[in-house]
Amino acid sequence: MDRTTWRDPKRVLVAPSMLSADPLEVARGMERARGAGADLLHIDVMDGHFVPNLGFSPADVRALRARCDLPLEVHLMVDHPEAFVPWFSDAGADVLIVHRETTHHPHRLLEEIGARGILAGLAFAPSTSVEDLPYVVDVLDLVMIMGVDPGFSGGSFVPSTPQKVARVRRLIKSEGIRIGVDGGVGPTTAPELRAAGANLLVSGSHFFAAEHPAEAIAELRG
Question: Using one digit for the tens of pLDDT, what is the confidence trace for 70-102?
Answer without folding.
Answer: 999 999 999 999 999 999 999 999 999 999 999
